[in-house]
Amino acid sequence: MAFVQRLQIEAVFNVLRNQNQQLESMLQRVWSQLKSAGLDGSIYVATSKSQSEIIQSQLDSSVRLIVEPERRDTFPAIALACTYLHSIVKAGANEMVCVLPVDSYTENHFYSRLKELEQLSAESDYEMILIGVKPDHPSEKYGYIVPDDEIGMGSCKRVKMFVEKPQKQRAQTLMEENALWNCGIFAFKLGYMVSLLQERGIPVQYEKLQSAYDTLPKTSFDYEIVEKAGTLAVYPYNGSWKDLGTWETLTEELDTSLQGKGTISELCRNTHVINELDIPVKVIDLSNIVVAASPDGILVSDKSASRKIKDLMNDTDQRLMYEERRWGWYRVLDYTNDRSGNERLTKKIIVHAGKNPSYQIHHKRKEVWTILSGEGIFAMNEQLIHVSAGDVLQIPAGAGHSMKATTDLEMIEVQMGSELGEEDTIRLFLSWDEIERNCSGRG
């Protein structure tokens, strides 16, 4: 049984506390729960290229990623994941695929129940099985699955209809009809999805679909597949569950109203500030709002409207101002682009002890690295030299270069050139062992 997790950007913020009272992200929380259920060996994470290294940093460098060429929607992402399982992993047509979001906030027992879906599928002719959560209140935030109590196998019932985020009175009626919250978990045989793609003329070879990814409809898996399926079943779960996919629901699980530098005045009610910046945020006499401040931007929103941020961000093509990588992290301090096409980008970079970024080449920019603290080994053009605080390193365009930190190392990087994006980055080696083998001298 293969499990595919679809990652949303909010899932990598460290805002929840684990059993040791340490901050963790939704991704880390769900991963630890899957490990507790013994399912981590079957997990593949579907995500965008820009998030791949932060996932490796938060989880493990060996985590299996299925990288989307661009962000589209859940149908293209799940289609790509299925072609990967079909053509790369060579999974059989009867292999059960279970799609999980990472923004579910639930108990460990919830994930143990996922193992039962494979047996239910083998014993029935349902095209797809969903998990539905028994509501404990008439929520207007979730979609509902209405089961047909007269058709089914044991506790697994055939789906009669779906209802999208009803008003409170309608939600109350749905509860009385034994409707379940739709938690966005789908289980189906791999061959079922492969056949649907073939019927639509969509490539089922992973490399071909990657190349044609921008031609796929930018739509949800629910709309494109689930709502059009012939035979659907829902498997009820009676336990604690919550969707943390919006800032409104996420703040309900925070143990403090203020994270980071800032002040919330006494007259504020139900107001939360999550501040990842070094400057303070002060909120005066405003209630029912969330303020989320990071290097990539500042959100100020009424909590009930916070879900609209996804619509506002759909057409945004903004440079990432902060990224976690497998070797550490960086923060953009300044960026300028003059009228003649010359760009300049300044970053603060932390490389953790024993780690290194890839050995890489840029043809359209030069770089200057200034070591602020720590020590390391600098590699450039097959030479290795020891560096420490105060050293300034000039890296011309076309030079291969990397750095291994022997202690935690802090530096300022200034990039200057006509193109400063990933398109001008050629990665030659990832591991330091590879880098050392290809460096012939030591300065």
Automatic annotation (TrEMBL):
Domain Mannose-6-phosphate isomerase type II C-terminal positions:
325-428
Q: Where in this chain does the record put each Nucleotidyl transferase domain?
A: 24-254
* Listed InterPro entries: Man6P_isomerase-2_C, Mannose-6P_isomerase_type2, NTP_transferase_dom, Nucleotide-diphossugar_trans, RmlC-like_jellyroll, RmlC_Cupin_sf
Q: What biological-process terms (Gene Ontology) are attached?
A: GDP-mannose biosynthetic process; polysaccharide metabolic process
Report the CDD domains cross-referenced here: cupin_PMI_typeII_C
Q: In terms of domain of life, where is this protein from?
A: Bacteria
What Pfam family is a match, any one?
MannoseP_isomer
Keywords linked to the UniProt accession = Nucleotidyltransferase, Transferase
Q: Does the keyword Nucleotidyltransferase apply?
A: yes
GO: which molecular function terms? Answer: mannose-1-phosphate guanylyltransferase (GTP) activity
Query: What is this protein called in UniProt?
Result: Mannose-1-phosphate guanylyltransferase
Provide the organism lineage as a comma list: Bacteria, Bacillati, Bacillota, Bacilli, Bacillales
